[in-house]
Amino acid sequence: RRKLASVTKSNAQKYSMVFWDEVTRDLAAEFPEVEVSHYHVDAIAARMVMAPETLDVVVASNLFGDILTDLGAAIQGGLGFAASANIDPTRKGPSMFEPVHGSAPDIADQGIANPIAAIWS
Predict the structure, then answer these.
(1) Which long-range contacts (CB under 8 A, 24 or more apart) does 18-25 make?
(2) Is residue 4 located within the same domain as residue 29?
(3) Residues 71 and 82 reside in one and the same domain
(4) 85 and 117 in one domain?
(5) Among the residues of the chain, which ranges form H helices?
(6) How many structural domains does the chain have?
(7) What pLDDT sits at residue 1?
(8) How many Cα atoms sit within 13 Å of 29 on the Cβ side?
(9) What is the pLDDT of residue 27?
(10) 68 Cβ partners below 8 Å, 6+ apart?
(11) What is the pLDDT of residue 78?
């Protein structure tokens, strides 16, 4: 739907997140066909639980993204369900597809691992 949600916390992090917001606004101007909304990380966490259908693409810093992917995985049923893709749109480097939270080495050889995140990736 050409909707992008930018995750910030510029009300509490006056330097890094204010800069994030400025860069997001500058880039958004280059893509007027994309509707960009700005959410504080705590508000988007609630939105992911209460109204996930209102979100399409979410862009966040590594810190906030890691927290939100854990939340998204929990909503799906657990960390083992979250698929991911790191895509190089320039095709100069390889794209990578993997479960968000790794290969679960702690349960290796027990016959209980669920491969669905790897399949979905």
Answers:
(1) 20/61, 24/59
(2) yes
(3) no
(4) yes
(5) 16-29, 41-50, 62-76, 116-120
(6) 2
(7) 92
(8) 5
(9) 96
(10) 7, 41, 44, 45, 48, 58, 60
(11) 83
Q: What is the CA radius of gyration of the chain?
A: 16
Residues 29 and 57 both lie in one domain: yes
**20/118 Cα distance (integer angstroms):** 31
- Residues of the chain where predicted confidence (pLDDT) is lower than 50: none
Q: Which amino acid is at 84?
A: S
21 contacts 40 by C-beta, under 8 angstroms: no
* Calpha distance 80→11 (Å, rounded): 33
pLDDT on residue 53? 95
Both structure tokens of 6: 């930018």
| Report field, pTM of the whole predicted structure over 0.90 | no
Kindly state whether residues 92 and 56 are assigned to the same domain.
no
Model pLDDT, residue 48:
96
Domain that holds residue 24: 1-76
